[in-house]
Design a protein that fits this description.
CATH class of the largest domain in chain A: Mainly Beta
Number of strands of chain A: 8
Mean pLDDT of chain A: 94
CATH architecture of the largest domain in chain A: Beta Barrel
Distance between the termini of chain B: 18 Å
Low-confidence stretches of chain A: none
Strand order of the largest sheet of chain B: 3-2-4-7-1-8-11-10-9
Order of helices and strands of chain B: EHEHEHEHHHEEEHEHEHHHHEE
Shape of chain B: globular
CATH superfamily of the largest domain in chain B: Thiolase/Chalcone synthase
CATH class of the largest domain in chain B: Alpha Beta
Strand content of chain A: 35-45%
Shape of chain A: globular
Radius of gyration of chain B: 19 Å
Low-confidence stretches of chain B: none
Mean pLDDT of chain B: 95
Largest sheet of chain A: 5 strands, antiparallel
Oligomer: heterodimer
Helix content of chain B: 25-40%
Number of domains of chain A: 2
Largest sheet of chain B: 9 strands, mixed
Radius of gyration of chain A: 15 Å
Strand content of chain B: 15-25%
CATH architecture of the largest domain in chain B: 3-Layer(aba) Sandwich
CATH topology of the largest domain in chain A: OB fold (Dihydrolipoamide Acetyltransferase, E2P)
Largest interface: A-B, 46 and 37 residues
Number of helices of chain A: 1
Structural class of chain A: mainly beta
Order of helices and strands of chain A: HEEEEEEEE
């Protein structure tokens, strides 16, 4: 069963991110001044206060940092069954909140390799096979 | 400036009801304010400081001051850090009293979260498109912290359940508690999963009601007939995800706790009972570690073998049944944690759970969500005769 794809509420300070997301491009903010990666995109760098944040592409590969199977989802997810919510740690080090899709809830584990997929402009992650 | 010992908690009142089908938020708050004033033996005309977050159900500080007939007030504070708010506000009141800005501070909260189905208020926030859009509920946010704790430290569901077992044991002796039946570890683990790994009995109750306390200067306290409780130390801190760097294994109590102990000039070993925020069982485990009652990662082991049971466990906790069994009004538990600590230090807890010779108590508030961004406040309180 696929998850609902609610229209993401778009904060104006992240407008450029959302334009890319609509095209399926996964980009994160990086501070042009201090080089820090910033998630989620915003007006100023929270590390050095610079307003010069640029969007840079990332590989979209990561591992599950933590997860839960929400069995009492609410709002638009009310009838979605068991919804897997996770923090994924990207290869770049950022930890992003997301849903896992194309996965059996009972088989999710911390450390599992995953890859970003865009679902109607919404960033989600699916399992990825890795060579041993 | 330090507030140590210069402010005294002289009145405390917890609304006796848990379900208030007919009533209003302002009416509930007025009930607890008058209850606390009566407990202190103070008239409302003496109140010159008002501490009230208010916004959660729309009744703000000025509206409430009007409804109660307060004024003109020389100091006020509507700090809103969710469930931690009243714990922070008592610290702020003590500082204001030490600075001479007010001498009778009223700290109040209340709501009808159980009977009045109303969503959280407020407009859009920057994280909407990056968090709420994924169906993140409050239990799910705490479940993320629990899952990571299990992964890193081997914590088990049975260990989390021990927290509920201790709270339920205490709730038996509280006639006002929403749930008064004792539970076993097996019953917690057999209750339905809400958001893995958290079961229904890992989650706190939702109730109507509220509470209020009065914090006054030493001069005012001396006029009053009732035994007071000294505010010895306060600390508070906010923890954010750090723009993509969240670490789910600790809370802001790791910062607020040491600040409070430093001001109080006592150590963890001196604490006779703890009133710990227990929105979920994992909240308690993380807090025990962050405050230094055990090492990081050892919270699960710490709560085994009845360590949290009153009166004789290593650290009697939430002796009223806590938010898990007794009361969590307006989805905010800080005030109720505070009031039970005051009862213990006045030797007015239920006899079955009264900690003998209770000299020092710690109150921990947590607000918002440990899975994303949160605020913590720690208070260290002392029996009136301690210096």
């Amino acid at each position: 069963m696929s998850l609902p794809t609610p229209e993401p509420p778009q904060d104006p300070t992240a407008a450029a991110y959302w334009r890319g997301a609509a095209r399926g491009e996964f980009r994160v903010a990086r501070c042009s001044h201090c080089g820090a990666h910033v998630w989620f995109p915003r007006s100023h760098c929270p590390q050095c206060t610079s307003p010069d944040l640029e969007l840079v592409p990332v590989s979209g590969e990561g591992v599950v940092y933590s997860f839960t199977v929400n069995r009492r989802p609410a709002g638009v997810y009310k009838d979605a069954g068991a919804v897997v919510i996770a923090y994924v740690e990207l290869a770049e080090g950022l930890r992003v909140l997301t849903n896992l899709v194309d996965v059996e809830p009972e088989r999710v584990r911390v450390g599992q390799p995953v890859r970003a997929v865009y679902d109607a402009g919404l960033l989600r992650f699916a399992p990825r096979e890795v060579a041993d | 400036m330090t507030a140590r010992g210069t402010a005294v908690l002289v009145g405390a009142y917890e609304h006796p009801e848990r379900i208030i089908p007919v009533g209003s938020v302002a009416g509930v708050v007025a009930d607890v304010v008058h209850g606390a004033l009566a407990d202190a033996g103070l008239g409302i005309e003496r109140v010159d400081g008002f501490f009230y977050a208010g916004v959660h159900q729309g009744v703000n500080l000025v509206t409430m001051a009007d409804y109660l007939g307060l004024g003109p007030l020389s100091y006020y504070d509507s700090t809103d850090t969710g469930g931690a708010s009243p714990v922070s506000q008592v610290g702020h009141a003590a500082t204001a009293i030490a600075a001479g800005r007010c001498s009778v501070a009223l700290v109040a909260m209340g709501g009808r979260a159980r009977s009045e189905k109303r969503g959280a208020s407020g407009g859009p926030v920057p994280q909407d498109g990056f968090e709420g859009v994924y169906g993140l509920t409050q239990p799910a946010a705490y479940a993320l912290a629990a899952q990571r704790h299990m992964y890193e430290f081997g914590t088990t569901g049975a260990q989390l359940a021990e927290v509920r077992v201790a709270a339920a044991h205490h709730a038996q002796f509280n006639p006002h508690a929403l749930y008064r039946d004792p539970v076993t570890v097996a019953q917690v683990l057999d209750s339905p999963l809400i958001s893995d790994p958290l079961h229904r009995l890992d989650c706190c109750v939702t109730t109507d009601g509220g509470g209020a306390v009065l914090v006054v200067s030493e001069e005012v306290a001396r006029e009053l007939p009732r035994r007071g409780v000294r505010v010895l130390g306060h600390g508070e801190a906010v923890k954010t995800p750090g723009a993509g760097r969240i670490d789910l294994t600790y809370t802001a109590a790791a910062v607020s706790g040491p600040r409070a102990f430093e001001e109080a000039r006592i150590s963890v070993a001196d604490i006779d009972m703890a009133s710990l925020y227990d929105s979920f069982t994992i909240t308690v485990l993380l807090t025990l570690e962050d405050l230094g009652f055990c090492d990081k990662g050892k919270g699960g082991r710490f709560v085994e073998d009845g360590a949290l049971l009153a009166p004789h466990g290593a650290l009697p906790f939430n002796t009223d049944g806590g938010g898990l069994c007794n009361n969590h009004p307006d989805r905010r538990g800080g005030m109720i944690r505070l009031i039970e600590a005051v009862r213990q230090l006045r030797s007015e807890a239920a006899p079955e759970v009264q900690v003998p010779d209770c000299e020092f108590a710690l109150v921990q508030g947590q607000g918002h969500a440990l899975g994303t961004r949160s605020a913590a406040a720690t208070l260290i309180l002392g029996r009136e005769d301690v210096r």
